[in-house]
Amino acid sequence: MKTAGWSTRRVAGQVDRSECVVRNCWVQWTREGTHARKPGSGATKKTTRREDRRIVRQALVDPTVTRSTIRADVGVAIVPQTISKHLAEANLKSKRPFRVLPLTPEHR
């Protein structure tokens, strides 16, 4: 569309994207000849797939195990949020023991 002489605003309206996105794509196309996204430079993984499986396995074996215990057993310097993320990916929710048993109407 740009090579046909369309304005950036008209192209953006046609493809339902912002003008900034269309402009950036056009600049990349004219500079590099490609529209492909570049791979991100995000944070590197601190754990291997084997360590990820070990984290999940420990939580399955003992549902009341703490994140700090799992971190010590895995032996990798990771933050507790990483452990929570791996458990959430495995559809495991935190299981804390009851402080007191919930009362039923019969108990009351």
UniProtKB/TrEMBL annotation:
Residues 52-108 form the Transposase Tc1-like domain. InterPro entries: Transposase_Tc1-like. Residues 32-52 are annotated as: Disordered. GO terms for molecular function: DNA binding. This is HTH_Tnp_Tc3_2 domain-containing protein. One of its GO terms (biological process) is DNA transposition.
